[in-house]
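FORM 12-B: Structure-to-Sequence Request
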């Protein structure tokens, strides 16, 4: 029997708080796990939706085998010193610390992620990176497991991480049974990148670099070279690359590749075009090149991405059934 302590605090996200109970509190683990709520701060605690939390006091926290930090109410708010000390004490007492979504802010504030790889919700990744520069943040993945510390991306990725932890501790059969009960994949392919907004960037202004970007976005099916674009801007290739980086924050090649992948995402979601047709429409010389770059940047194959995000005329996902 292991104890899974879920760190509660006022205005905590309801969904993240429920994930550990739904996974570790499943019937398949009834004789192996005890899930308890523990208080991260004094006073009456309620979720973001006003539900009262009957949490235990902080001294109950340290004996836990797993301590789950279920998000944090506001990434811009400093974590209370008492909560930081409690998390740090639990880790030093031997608990595996698990941060769901923005819970990484709490664990990082405790100094437990310095020099370690971690992830959090992609929307809050820039703020996290600024506040905790010594953490090796990877906003592209769904979760990171470093044995003693694990972090997950936003919201539903917390389910992915908890199922992964069940799989590692109790085996695939148990994890798969829990996943079937929750009606979620036992293991989800890909990373956060496939869930980021993928719209092709809009460019405006009279600057020649921005005009070049506008020109390229309208011709993604064509082969485009730096030399040609530099000539259009009346610049040398070196000047063009330098000026482009100043405007876009990346190289022309990387920017254009992002636009091609973004367009491929749109076509996979909204058309019945084959992978070969999409590769051609997005400027790839062959579908193999599209598949390789798509998987590298999105974290899933084009086919898997389409299966997840393809919509029909009724606006339901392709794997959904209307009543």
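FORM 12-B RESPONSE
SEQUENCE OUT:
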């Amino acid at each position: 029997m292991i104890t899974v302590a879920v760190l509660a605090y006022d205005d905590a996200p309801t969904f993240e708080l429920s994930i550990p109970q739904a996974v570790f509190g499943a019937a398949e683990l009834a004789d192996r796990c005890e899930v308890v709520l523990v208080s991260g701060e004094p006073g009456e605690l309620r979720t973001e939706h006003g539900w009262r939390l009957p949490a235990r006091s902080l001294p109950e926290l340290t004996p836990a085998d797993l301590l789950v930090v279920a998000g944090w109410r506001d990434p811009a708010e400093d974590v209370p010193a008492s909560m930081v000390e409690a998390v740090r004490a639990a880790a030093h007492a031997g608990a595996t610390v698990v941060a769901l979504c923005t819970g990484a802010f709490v664990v990082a504030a405790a100094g437990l992620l310095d020099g370690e790889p971690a992830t959090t919700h992609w929307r809050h990744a820039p703020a996290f990176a600024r506040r905790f520069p010594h953490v090796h943040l990877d906003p592209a993945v769904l979760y990171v497991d470093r044995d003693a510390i694990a972090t997950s991306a936003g919201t539903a990725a917390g389910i992915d991480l908890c199922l992964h932890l069940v799989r590692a501790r109790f085996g695939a059969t148990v994890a798969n049974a829990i996943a079937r009960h929750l009606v979620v994949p036992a293991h989800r392919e890909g990373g956060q990148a496939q869930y980021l907004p993928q719209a092709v960037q809009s460019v405006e202004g009279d600057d020649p670099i921005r005009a070049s970007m506008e020109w390229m976005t309208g011709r993604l099916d064509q082969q485009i070279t730096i030399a040609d674009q530099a000539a259009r801007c009346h610049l040398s290739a070196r000047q063009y690359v330098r000026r482009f980086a100043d405007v876009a924050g990346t190289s022309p090649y990387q920017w254009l590749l992002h636009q091609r992948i973004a367009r491929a995402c749109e076509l996979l979601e909204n058309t019945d075009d084959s992978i070969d047709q999409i590769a051609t429409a997005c400027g790839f010389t062959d579908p193999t090149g599209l598949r390789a770059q798509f998987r590298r940047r999105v974290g899933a194959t084009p086919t898997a991405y389409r299966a997840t995000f393809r919509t029909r005329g009724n606006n339901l996902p392709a794997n959904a059934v209307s009543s």
